[in-house]
Amino acid sequence: MHWSSKEKLFPQLLETYYLGGMASGVQPKVVIERAALLQPDLIIKTFDDEFPLLTVNEFVCMKCAQYCGLPTPNVWLSDNLEHYIIERFDTDEHGNKIGIEDYATLMGKSGDKKYLGSYESILKATAINTQSIHEVEKAFSLITFNCLIGNGDAHLKNFSVQYDSDMTNISLSPVYDITHTIIYPTVDKDMALKLKKSKTYPNRKDLIDLAFDAGISRSKAGEIVDNMAQNIQQCIQDIAEIEAMPNLKQSILDHLSKVMTHFPMVSPYRHKKRKNTNNPTFTLRNTLRCLIFLFILSGYVKPNLTTQSRQFMSSK
Ligand SMILES: Nc1ncnc2c1ncn2[C@@H]1O[C@H](COP(=O)(O)OP(=O)(O)OP(=O)(O)O)[C@@H](O)[C@H]1O
Ligand SMILES: [Mg+2]
């Protein structure tokens, strides 16, 4: 995306569109509605001195989310890196509003309580409101993505559900506002919400436990976490824009390997440990098992049976 004027774009956008429609949040942004341009509604974000190149950071993270298969709106980065543009997902192709509710509202909390809660409660609220394990899996995937990418600002207002036009079906909205926050020195290095009663970033096992407690099998959760870790790695190798922000690639990689500690990120995930039948201990153990079985059959060894099974055996 290119802007050729010598004048700065963002102040002009502010002047023209500031009152045209507001999106809340702390990052400087304007909303451009479709009545003004022959294109979908857009939100344009820029950055200030505290968070340099937040535009590049958010663009890269959204591309990684796309690689991970999360539902993402179209996004663009301006050539001069000053503007990050995201298509609005709360209007349909005819310009009609789609009902969106963030998790603070869904849980009956005011906006200033957006950092008070847990990722467990997000999964619980998803299950209660959507009655769908598929949506719970989507919420778990988004939580996992935030943990892996190092987004310490994944608070209650950065998760939303959307409603069908007849308000019958409720599902997770596309994702938004994802950045690798831990690269900024003024941002604290913890997460926005608690997981297992702590705001410290979890490891792979903690994430699998979180999923399991929400009704997702451990093997499915492991698959989600491992696929995401690999897709993020792939994305940051592929995407040229990442080079525009010094140290972004290395910082994401360092964080990713911390969360995935003790787990090899590059080799594909194996569900079951394959047994090494050439291992002498394995062979000896099996030979002993066979011998004990043969002794039981021939009556040399009496297994420790319960009273019920003794009665059952003697009645035969
Ligand atoms: N693509 C989008 N379509 C529709 N609504 C959106 C979109 N992106 C963001 N929003 C809405 O606008 C709000 C503010 O946007 P966003 O979270 O990106 O801003 P922010 O300033 O980075 O917020 P924060 O206070 O979390 O740092 C979001 O909470 C969400 O409700
Ligand atoms: Mg936000």
- Helical fraction equals 25-40%
What average pLDDT do the residues reach?
Answer: 83
Give the C-level CATH assignment of the largest domain: Mainly Alpha
CATH architecture of the largest domain: Orthogonal Bundle
Q: What kind of oligomer do you see?
A: single chain
Bound compounds, each kind once, are: adenosine-5'-triphosphate, magnesium ion
The count of helical stretches stands at 10
Q: What is the molecular shape?
A: globular
**What is the helix/strand order?**
HEEHEEEHHHEEHHHHH
Question: Which percent range describes the beta-strand content?
Answer: 5-15%
Q: What is the terminal separation in angstroms?
A: 83 Å
Summarize the biggest pleated sheet: 4 strands, antiparallel
Structural category = alpha+beta
Organism: Paraglaciecola aquimarina
Keywords: Kinase, Transferase
Protein name: HipA domain-containing protein
Family: Belongs to the HipA Ser/Thr kinase family.
